[in-house]
Amino acid sequence: MLTALPVYNEQAHLERVLDQVVSQADDVLVVDDGSTDDTAKLLAQRDDIRVITHYPNRGYGAALRTAFCYAKTHDYDVLVTIDCDGQHEPQRIRELAARCAGDIDIVSGSRYLSASESGGLAAPEDRKAINQTITGEINQRLGLSLTDAFCGFKAYRVAALSPLQLREDGYAMPLELWVQAAHHGLKIEEAAVPLIYLDEKRSFGGELDDAERRLRHYRDVIDRALARVNVRHPAADVDPCAGLVASGVAVPTAG
Fold it and tell me: Where does the Glycosyltransferase 2-like domain start and stop, copy by copy (predicted)?
């Protein structure tokens, strides 16, 4: 089992979260997506993780795709992804991984299942509303029954990632993932995780900080993903990472 964390300028949370993750996981990969704060310096001080660095920043989706590629090329059976912003509970890593067994391809954390417990502050109203709107549209268009389309805490059966052709670099990549997963008939279930929001401002980048523009962008990503779902990149038939990470943009370093 591999646990991967996409990070960008997370110096405030990095050491605390990593200490917790390494105590709960087998192997740990950090994808530093071109951080400009002290994240890289803090990562270089550790010998209990593996680090891949993007130069320059490419986006949350690109970092996840690099983690997918790493898990595939290093023959892991299960990949767990967890954010490094202090809003997930690392002690649930093995629970999610264990549920991603048998015929389950993706176990996705949900902060809105009835069994979920709230921790920290309530979700910002615009983020909650957009999540609910997009989750409903995803379900309607793809025939899924998700309650949380955006949670970054997931477990994947690595073999099930092979047919996926992912192209989105930004925060909306998980929406493309759902389109691909539905198209390829992957089996999905959700696991309740606590709803934890911290008292700090998070940016989606530029104009996406505006809720209405962000909602339009998410819908555009879904439309693009549906439009190209039947267009297969020919390299994918021979390259296990085709469409997951472009050559030359990730630099691995020993942890």
Answer: 5-161
